[in-house]
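User: ok so my PI wants both of these folded by tonight, can you help

Assistant: No problem, let's get them done. Here's the first:
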Amino acid sequence: MVFPSEPFFCVLLLSSFLFVSPSQSAADYSILVYKGCAKQAFQDPNGVYSQAISALFGSLVSQSTKTKFFKTTAGTSQTTITGLFQCRGDLSNTDCYNCVSKLPILTDKLCGKTIAARIQLYGCYISYEVAGFAQISGMEMLYKTCGAKNLAGGGFEERRDTALSVMQNGVVSGHGYFATNYQSVYVLGQCEGDVGDSDCGECVKTAVQRAQVECGNAISGQIYLHKCFISYSYYANGVPRRSSSSSSSSNSISSGTGQNTGKTVAIIVGGAAGVGFLVICLLFARGLIKKHDDF
């Protein structure tokens, strides 16, 4: 879809945006990531465009209770407006609706009556454009953000790149959405719902390359291209558990090597710690008995 070149496209970047985490609560899905607003406003003396946008938004919101992606048009042949919404693949239908239902008001508040707009929240986005609006490449970067520099020690970039490679392959076999974790690195990728598997793979590949270049050794990063986005985050204490509000067990596939190894180590360490604690308790009790006998 949308926004051709920078002079015609205003983007608001929020540096305080929280990185994608598998443990975020449903309320966090409504956090604003960025806005994209065309600078040209509607010439709408009779209110026909306003009516078309209102009808478009109504249709999109109603569909968000049933699906995570929907694209449609509204208006007459003279006032055709195309719009779509998409929710993250790991959102439940309820969370998707709750996210999308906030977007029409936000769009009007942040962009006003512009001929094209895109509002990206943490868990969903909405976009629309009038017929004839200039198109851009699906690989065009709309937004990026990178976290703090790596403090994770040696080998971090190799672990991250391995996780991104797994995700890059997974998003194709997953038909547009994939999330996984590998050795404390959580990655997620998603393509727009009407993008084919082959084009999706190319889009995510480009996003991964941009992340490696733009974010360097940062421990987290997000790259939003026009037709796809990716995210990665490193968790020093291990990737947190998923929120119970999201129903996505079939979409989030953990890499066997990373997660199973982590679990094995945790069991061994935890077991050893438990045995050690028991021994200390026994020795302490033995000492008390010996002192009692001495009296």
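One down. Here's the second:
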Amino acid sequence: MSEESDSLRTSPSVASLSENELPPAPKPPGYVCSLTEELVAKAREELQEKPEWRLRDAQALRDMVRKECPGLRTALDDAFLLRFLRARKFDYDRALQLLINYHGCRRSWPEVFQNLKPSALKEVLASGFLTVLPHTDPRGCHILCIRPDRWIPSSYPITENIRVIYLTLEKLIQSEETQVNGIVILADYKGVSLSKASHFGPFIAKKVIGILQDGFPIRIKAVHIVNEPRIFKGIFAIIKPFLKEKIANRFFLHGSDLNSLHINLPKSILPKEYGGTAGELDIAAWNAVLLASEEDFVREFCQPVPACDSILGRALLPEGLTSDAQCDDSMRAVKSQLYSCY
């Protein structure tokens, strides 16, 4: 057996598969860069990526995983490891820590990451809570459009919305283009009420923001908030303490001023709901992309995970991911914060 195939997880035989299990994934093909010349140059300038050293860098990270985290159950092919190297500008130590955090966060929040597959989230997808716009921004960033008003709390818990966010991020980050360009978030808070906002307290905020900043290989280039009600001041006051300065500086609050939004996101790439000329907002296309990826998600997120406390021991988990003790106090605090906005 080759060294590369030895690095891949062992899967059960076809005869022993449960309904969620699939035959082992075929061995990933040898890495072939899909970046254009322009993106290769951008990666070199912004991410310190040198094409001539790319495979050497991936091998160095692979060696570190095998030496320092032999029990870490992870893919080790070049394409997968490059996600983490690019997210940390090819700093080996930081890329390794991000990889450990990525798996540690998944294990520490099973309500979100267990059984994470499109077919389990059809109701959330159909609601239109989240979609990806068909056009990228001028920098090549995919745009995630989040509409909290589409969520009916009595239908399912807020963690289902978070599951759809991570489902989408996992799909997007498969693209090398996204690994280099990053993403933009467009959040429409029109119609968000006090009762709905209270579900997103500090306890949840710590988890979501912590994973996005320190536990997932994604580059968030901007967050545009539109139609935010007065209550959003309370929501942002909850979020801001957990944001790193660089990310906090990438938040833009536009209110109902779509002209302000269009300075950053041109009309030509936006649906008419946001003053754009790209037709009506369509959620069907992105939902179809996710549902077509069912097999990949089943293989990655729906298999039995052996106990391995050493993974969580090495993970620098964001505060709030390891304990539920703060939950009640957090909810009381957030309601007080939100009421003060009225």
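The domain at 37-108 is CATH 1.10.8.20 (Helicase, Ruva Protein; domain 3). The mean pLDDT is 85. Good luck tonight!
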